Amino acid sequence: MSQVTEETTRTERVLSLPLSFPIGLPGFEGHHSFVLGALGPEYGPYLGLRSTQEDGPSFVIAQPSELGIEMAVDIDDFHQSLLGIKDAGEVLVMLIATLDAEGGLPTVNTQAPLVINVTNWRSAQVLQNNQAYSMHEAVEVPLRDRSRIHNANELVE
To answer: Which residues contact 125 (CB under 8 A, 6 or more apart)?
Structure first.
């Protein structure tokens, strides 16, 4: 079993990146092909993850460090083998966000993070046996903030 910390999970934003989930996601086992993509500057650190199948599920995800969350992820031997992970530097950790129906701050699932091997883009949701992690961890980063558009435009000029 290996452990991945935040220092080993940095990535650049991309417009569209295909991800393979060999065993699907819990509740969506029949969905194996997803696309990871930017939602736009107003969404800050949040990205979209959507199934390539028609009418498939879509999720909002983000890196823990970009939400102010420090965590170490344990990856068991089964998932290391399934994803072809040989080194912690190959791993990107993402958290699935749950959106508040009333427009409040989202929560994220730290109990079952997404683990992505950045060398082959194979991915899985890996349940953590850490009592400190929660399915609904509160975050202070709003999903959508129009002020981010202004800040993004200043960087381009």
So the answer is: 25, 26, 96, 112, 113, 114, 115
- Residue 114 domain-assigned? yes
Q: Domain containing 88: what range?
A: 2-152
Which strand (E) or helix (H) includes residue 156? helix 147-156
What's the CATH number where 55 sits?
2.30.290.10
Is residue 157, in this structure, part of any structural domain at all? Answer: no
Query: Does residue 22 sit within a domain?
Result: yes
**pLDDT of 59 above 70:** yes
Q: Could you give the CA distance from residue 109 to residue 125 in angstroms, rounded to a whole number?
A: 10
pLDDT of residue 102: 73
Residue 135 lies in a domain: yes
pLDDT of residue 150: 66
Say if residues 45 and 12 touch (Cβ distance below 8 Å). no
Q: How many domains does the chain have?
A: 1
Lookup: tokens for 32: 């194996």
Q: What is this structure's pTM?
A: 0.84
Cross-strand partners of 12: none
Structure-block tokens of residue 78 = 């089964």
8 A C-beta contact, residue 26 and residue 114: no
Phi, psi of 122 (to 5 degrees): -85, 140
